[in-house]
Amino acid sequence: MFPFESFQDFEIKISEDHELFRRAVREFAEKEILPNVMKIERTNEIPEELYQKAKEMGLMGVGIPEAYGGQGGDMLMTTIANEELSRVSPAFMVRIGANHLFTTPVLIFGTEDQKRKYVTKVARGEVFAAHANTEPGAGSDVAGIKTTAKKENGKWIINGRKYFITGSDKAAFLVVSARTSPPPSREERWKGITFFIVERDWPGVKIGSKINVMGLRGEQPNEVILDNVEVPEENVLGKVGEGFKVAVTTYDRGRVGVAAQAVGIAQGAFERAFNYSFQRQAFERPLIAFEGVAFKLADMLAHLESARLLTYWAATLAEKNHNLAVTAASLAKMISTEVAEQVSSLAIKIHGGAGVEVQTGVERYLRDAMITTIYEGANDIQRIMVVRDLVRKIIGKSLDMT
């Protein structure tokens, strides 16, 4: 059982409400998004009317308390939404998911005034929001950021450049990390970082060039440039100098969302491959009649369902605030994203030449899957985190025995 203590730690409860919600999101994705997928791939733009329809359905506020304009729902419900949207369009899911990278830290660390002023508008779908932490020289190494914030005349002046910021081109609000004091030592590099809530239309905030990444057509990240941006004291998020905690808490939850995204990608790729194996004939037999194809499909399904269960389990532990929820989230993100990459690759191989033809829409699954292995903490970082958690668990047990 190590590092867990009870079989009950592996319990996943899915209610009828969860299933009804899944069906509703799947219907929306297939009816509204699917007919636009290839257009999105060609133009690299998501039609604005899709966001309006998602807003009307309440998808912008899933997982956000009703008190702040949201639809409510638990972590598993948010996971289901991410999965079902990603099955059809990971880019569309990422655009909505970027909102949660803003609302999550504000809901956990923000003041009541911050929650009502900012979260409510995002949850109602009135505005988009984004999370600006990554920099050209600081990704998984949160403590490596160079953006600074200095206190002058009662306000904070932020200067810096953020990179790969998802959803920033449409965001009205951003949470921004900046160093407010130098680290006291090399061993304590994580100290001295602070998060701020920044409004897009403030002087000095500039959304820079779009970064043309290989996947997620329709939702490409941008640079965010901060040039002497004045931020009032009331827009400090959490405690000054303790922003590292804000960051890692946000990413601990965000990793479950990325895992769900990967499960959706794998599901979509598997369905395409399975259907094609029935329709495509070779040597006067359907492809599925050949062991080389049939075995691939069996492996794809086995890995897909394993990833789904792992992701739902991580979501369940996160909802419970279980002491090993972070470990579970890292495992889910690591396994599910690699499964998505593997399943997508096999789907292409089953399609043969048609699999690498852009117009068939199969190769996009692999392009979208690969980025999930990188953001929200690259998978090798997740492996390090898992082992560190195990070591802490062992050390704790050793101390209990003395």
Automatic annotation (TrEMBL):
Cofactor field: FAD
Transmembrane segments: none
Top-level taxon: Archaea
Domain spans labelled Acyl-CoA dehydrogenase/oxidase C-terminal: 241-389
Signal peptide annotation: none
Record GO terms (molecular function): acyl-CoA dehydrogenase activity; flavin adenine dinucleotide binding
Domain Acyl-CoA oxidase/dehydrogenase middle: 131-229
Domain called Acyl-CoA dehydrogenase/oxidase N-terminal: residue spans: 15-126
InterPro entries named in the record: Acyl-CoA_Oxase/DH_mid-dom (IPR006091), Acyl-CoA_Oxase/DH_mid-dom_sf (IPR046373), AcylCo_DH-like_C (IPR036250), AcylCo_DH/oxidase_C (IPR009075), AcylCoA_DH/ox_N (IPR013786), AcylCoA_DH/ox_N_sf (IPR037069), AcylCoA_DH/oxidase_NM_dom_sf (IPR009100)
PANTHER family from the UniProt entry: ACYL-COA DEHYDROGENASE, ISOVALERYL-COA DEHYDROGENASE, MITOCHONDRIAL-RELATED
Family assignment from sequence similarity: Belongs to the acyl-CoA dehydrogenase family.
Protein name: Acyl-CoA dehydrogenase domain-containing protein
